[in-house]
Hints:
The protein has helices at about 5-15, 20-40, 80-85, 175-180, 270-275; strands spanning about 40-50, 60-65, 70-75, 90-95, 105-110, 115-120, 125-130, 130-140, 140-145, 150-155, 160-165, 170-175, 190, 195, 200-210, 215-220, 225-230, 235-245, 255-260, 260-270, 280-285, 295-305, 310-315, 320-325. By secondary structure, the chain is mainly beta.
Amino acid sequence: MQAINWRGILRLMFVRDGSWKLLSLVIACLLYFSVNSQISHRRTFSVPVDVAFDSAGTGVVIESVEPRAVQVMLRGSHAALNQLNPEIMLFETRPKRKKNNAAQADSETIKLNRFQLRNATSLRVVDIDPPRVLVKYDVPMDLTLGIARPEITGTARGQVSLSYDQTNAVVTGSRRLLAALAPNKVQVLSAPINVGGRTMSFQTRVSLYPPGDQTRLKVAPSDMVVNVNITSEMSSTRIERIPVHIIAAPAGAAWVCTPPFVDLEVTGAEAEIARIRPDDFSVLADATHLGGNTAEDRIPLTVFARQGMTVTAVAEPTSVELTRPPSTNPE
């Protein structure tokens, strides 16, 4: 058998009439791309990104994915593009982070590719914009902070001081948020305490709030007990010639009191004493239990102050003498 002359065969295939063969190849390529362009179309879709991460048992969860959707340009036939349901397409990717390692970074950049696109298998991915997404993780962290002194609102009738046993609280939240806080510069906030018009000490429970984003940070305990101590600066004044009013039984005997006027010694908070007026008080002698005889009776006096006042008023003298008028005495 004769050996095959490969060199002669290759020369016959590529060299002989080479210019015509090259021209035929160019024409074939042009026809291919021309026909392909007629049956291939492009369209851009907004596709959401889903990051699969199992946070069970670790406390580490995905806080956000930026952006939540990317623009994807797909190429295919006109019929395939029209039959595509954009609502079921998504990019399904998995982060490289190890879920049981809390010491890793709080964010990660993930590159998207055509193999992660779901429900568009018959189409070709031309472009992904942007090609990467940023995944932020919520890694739990505890931070102990001091509690700021509650703010006092309103004006008390005296000097106000606060006392409470709770001085620190634990703030729990994302490590990315808490790591930026300086424990020596920030404090847990407390609700204000209204002492308007108060004259006596009292105890109240105020809520505690974490610094910064209160929707993503929690504080424990959530409230604390505060003792509000009010020390009033007491003052006294004397009001002279307050008339004594006699309360008698209906259709009973008429009475005359001696003396008809008394003085009041009023004691109370300094600010309230400065505002009082004589008509803020009334002095009463109750004679409804007395009969119609002419005997003289000494009746203790009762002092009434205007509603809302927190003062002590004492009449001088503390009692009056009631007698029947001469015109009504029996002969």
